[in-house]
């Protein structure tokens, strides 16, 4: 809901007229609600997956963009959430139990990793988090009794209730969109709260943050845990969209792609998370239409082009365009950059 | 300050307008079907969809499978097309996308192929995980998912429950059982050491082998596993060598590791007979680097004629295959097994299309479930043999490495 707000003011400006926000929010809700009813199942799936990855990227943004840490471990948390819900569904347990299990487990693992990792910075932290997907993939294969081993798990969850008359792709879309909207709203609220300011302080200058009474380690652990919870929740939504999970999904490549998505979209922007995810999901499909054999080569070219033309990401670039259209001189650089 | 929200409003309004405009080309249009005919079938064409790993670590295999199939379809199309039961001759049109071996991408490709491209059937989608990810949808939506490019039994073992999905090549279990049959047929006391990859693939080979030797004089005396990420198998081979087993069954999926394992055993003075699964039976990549000459016995299995095997140099099937690969995919290597499998699977699909009486998706599945006869490149004595509990190819031949090449054992 606050996507458009962030488009205009990536750092959540003070002056905002309530009816403007409400209208923007209402417009977005209408668009999102009507979309699956009129679009093809393939388009719905693309939007659904975009929202799934957007949640994972948002989790990464809390850690990387807000707090200034590096993580290559997001695919592992994504996998924990996905396996959490899939394993529960596989055993016939209710979906909400699976959701809770997956998200809580991701958060607990995230917190456990964060406690020692919070002492590290930059590359060292990157190296530690790098081990997460490296461990997660063989672990998922080894725990065959619960995870289905290398073959993975086929599950049927979040089936469309009879009374809705909706097709599976439409229902999955609504479930994922509702979940994503909820956690995006939470993130927006968090960003404006004193937590958001504390994360900013840690990113900008740790010594200064400490001097101002911000417990740096505590906030790093919190950011890491939140990031893992978002990753886990994205994994749950992934299983809703794909109805399948296997070790191929949590490989390191996904972590890197999510990080790339964050850079593409732009740091500290909710809209940026969605745009980065859309880039990851939609661009390979478009390049695949051009040439199946060269789809990833062309994807790489697009990625380079975006990074060269919009080094701060798509959302800040859009932001500037919108400001110029509105005939106002925007701040070129957000504070803290 | 009053204008602070106006760009946001404007952007929101544009977004609403855009979606409502898109709404005009809604669902009704995308699911268009060509009159009374089955989806993807016109009077002159039949449209087939595929999803391969054309990028990522398995790109070489995925691309080879795609090229092999393409070279057969191109040859059929050049000759006019497939003559089907209604008397019409149709060209085969293949729509294919890259999934990078990512199940989520494979599911997207499936959606695109079935709802946007409106293909008649899916053909030879690549790999175990991507196929598993789309199997449930394909079966509930009654879209044939034919001849999947994987040796996993799960795609063929229960076609009563999943009638729209079927594999093509013999399963890893079948291959394991073929080695067991080869040993038990000798009717002598034999001890076997086993090394296998620690995943479903390795287990499938070992399960097939173990159940095959049940109740015979062949006994497994030592067993080790490895991870695909292990740099060498030296420690496992050293442990197995202590068993002094007569036979070493290598259910290994990585050529480099196999070569190292063979030479390590020899270095330790252990010279068992070697059983190499077909994934690692390459002369150039495995046997030559290992330094073994085969004097103690090296065996493997095969079901298609290898393009680099001298005994088939004058074979019409192989010559056609090599020539067609050269035309359709210049620069591609015809000796990669995935290419030969793709070619054979394409021939199987063309045969099924020719024999389908009722040209609908269900009719095609019916035909596939009763498919028999021969297709190009199969080894002598092997034929398609459709069943509801396995892929249409359910046998392999044992071959021995002799004088620098593989030769079939009668």
TrEMBL record, chain A:
Task: Tell where it localizes.
Answer: Cell membrane
Q: Give UniProt keywords alphabetically.
A: Cell membrane, Membrane, Transmembrane, Transmembrane helix
Mind telling me which InterPro entries this protein's record contains?
A: ABC_transp_permease, LivM-like
A GO term from the CC aspect:
plasma membrane
Question: What's the chief localization of this chain?
Answer: membrane
Membrane topology of this protein: Multi-pass membrane protein
Stored Pfam families: BPD_transp_2
Domain of life where this protein originates:
Bacteria
Q: Where are the transmembrane segments?
A: 21-39, 45-64, 95-115, 122-140, 171-190, 221-245, 251-283, 295-314
Q: Which residues form the signal peptide?
A: none
User: Magnesium: is it a keyword of this entry?
Assistant: no
Q: Name one GO molecular function term.
A: branched-chain amino acid transmembrane transporter activity
Q: What's the protein here called? A: Branched-chain amino acid ABC transporter permease
Automatic annotation (TrEMBL), chain B:
Against InterPro entries, the record matches this protein to: Leu-bd, Peripla_BP_I
Please, which domain of life does this record's source organism belong to? Bacteria
UniProt keywords, alphabetically:
Signal
Alphabetized SUPFAM superfamilies for the sequence: Periplasmic binding protein-like I
Leucine-binding protein domain: from which residue to which, for each copy? 45-372
Tell me if Nucleus is a UniProt keyword of this record: no
Question: Per UniProt, what is one Pfam family of this protein?
Answer: Peripla_BP_6
Record-linked PANTHER family: BLR6548 PROTEIN
- Would you identify the family this protein belongs to, as annotated? Belongs to the leucine-binding protein family.
Q: Under what name is this protein listed?
A: ABC transporter substrate-binding protein
The protein's organism comes out as Planotetraspora thailandica
């Amino acid at each position: 809901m606050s996507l458009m707000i962030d488009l205009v003011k990536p750092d959540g400006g003070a002056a905002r007229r309530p009816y403007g926000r409400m209208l923007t929010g209402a417009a977005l809700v209408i668009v999102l609600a009507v979309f699956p009813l009129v679009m093809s199942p393939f388009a719905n799936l693309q939007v659904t997956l975009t929202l799934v990855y957007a949640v994972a990227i948002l989790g990464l943004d809390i850690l990387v963009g807000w707090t200034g840490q590096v993580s290559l471990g997001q695919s592992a948390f994504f996998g924990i959430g996905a396996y959490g819900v899939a394993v529960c569904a596989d055993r016939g347990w209710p979906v909400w139990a699976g959701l809770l299990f997956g998200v809580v487990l991701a958060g607990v693992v995230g917190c456990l990793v964060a406690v020692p990792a919070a002492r590290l910075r930059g590359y060292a932290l990157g190296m530690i988090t790098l081990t997460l997907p490296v461990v997660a993939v063989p672990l998922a294969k080894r725990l065959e009794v619960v995870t289905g081993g290398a073959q993975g798990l086929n599950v049927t969850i979040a089936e469309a209730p009879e009374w809705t008359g909706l097709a599976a792709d439409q229902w999955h879309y609504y479930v994922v969109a509702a979940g994503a909207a909820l956690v995006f709203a939470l993130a927006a609220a968090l960003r404006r709260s004193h937590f958001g300011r504390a994360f900013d302080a840690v990113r900008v200058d740790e010594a200064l943050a400490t001097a101002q009474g911000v417990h740096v380690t505590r906030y790093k652990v919190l950011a890491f845990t939140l990031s893992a919870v978002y990753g886990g929740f994205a994994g749950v939504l992934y299983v809703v969209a794909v109805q399948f999970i296997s070790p191929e999904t949590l490989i390191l490549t996904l972590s890197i792609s999510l990080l790339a998505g964050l850079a593409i979209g732009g740091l500290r922007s909710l809209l940026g998370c969605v745009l980065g995810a859309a880039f990851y999901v939609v661009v390979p499909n478009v390049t695949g239409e051009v040439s199946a054999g060269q789809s990833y080569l062309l994807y790489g070219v697009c990625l380079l082009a975006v990074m060269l033309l919009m080094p701060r990401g798509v959302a800040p670039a859009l932001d500037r365009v919108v400001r110029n259209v509105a005939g106002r001189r925007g701040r070129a650089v957000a504070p803290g950059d | 300050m009053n204008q602070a929200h106006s760009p946001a409003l404007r952007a929101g309004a544009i977004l609403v307008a855009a979606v409502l405009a898109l709404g005009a080309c809604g669902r009704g249009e995308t699911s268009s079907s060509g009159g009374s005919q089955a989806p993807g079938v016109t009077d002159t064409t039949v449209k087939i969809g595929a999803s391969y790993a054309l990028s990522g670590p398995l790109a070489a295999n995925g691309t080879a499978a795609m090229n092999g199939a393409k070279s057969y379809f191109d040859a059929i199309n050049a000759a006019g097309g497939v003559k089907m039961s209604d008397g019409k001759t149709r060209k085969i049109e293949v729509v294919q996308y890259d999934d990078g071996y990512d199940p989520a991408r494979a599911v997207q490709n499936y959606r695109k192929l079935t709802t946007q491209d409106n293909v008649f059937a899916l053909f030879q989608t690549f790999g175990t995980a991507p196929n598993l990810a789309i199997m449930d949808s394909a079966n509930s939506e009654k879209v044939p998912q034919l001849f999947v490019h994987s040796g996993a039994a799960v795609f063929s073992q229960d076609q009563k429950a999943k009638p729209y999905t079927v594999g093509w090549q013999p399963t890893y279990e079948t291959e394991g059982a073929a080695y067991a049959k080869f040993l038990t047929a000798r009717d002598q006391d034999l001890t076997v050491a086993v090394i296998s990859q620690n995943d479903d693939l390795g287990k499938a080979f070992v399960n097939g082998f173990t159940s095959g030797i049940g109740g015979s004089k062949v006994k497994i005396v030592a067993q080790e596993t490895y991870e695909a990420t292990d740099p060498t198998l030296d420690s496992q081979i050293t442990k197995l060598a202590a068993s002094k087993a007569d036979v070493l069954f290598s259910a290994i999926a990585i050529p480099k590791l196999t070569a190292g394992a063979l030479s390590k055993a020899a270095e330790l003075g252990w010279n068992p007979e070697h059983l190499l699964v077909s994934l690692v039976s390459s002369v150039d990549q495995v046997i030559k680097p290992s330094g073994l000459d085969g004097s103690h016995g090296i065996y493997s299995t095969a079901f298609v004629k290898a393009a680099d095997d001298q005994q088939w140099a004058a074979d019409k099937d192989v010559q056609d295959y090599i020539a067609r690969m050269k035309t359709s995919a210049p620069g591609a290597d015809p000796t990669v097994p995935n290419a030969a499998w793709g070619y054979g699977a394409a021939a199987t699909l063309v045969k099924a299309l020719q024999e389908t009486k009722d040209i609908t998706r269900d009719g095609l599945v019916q035909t596939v479930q009763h498919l028999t006869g021969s297709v190009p490149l199969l080894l002598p004595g092997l034929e398609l043999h459709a069943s509801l509990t396995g892929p249409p190819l359910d046998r392999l031949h044992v071959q021995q490495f002799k004088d620098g090449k593989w030769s079939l054992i009668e």
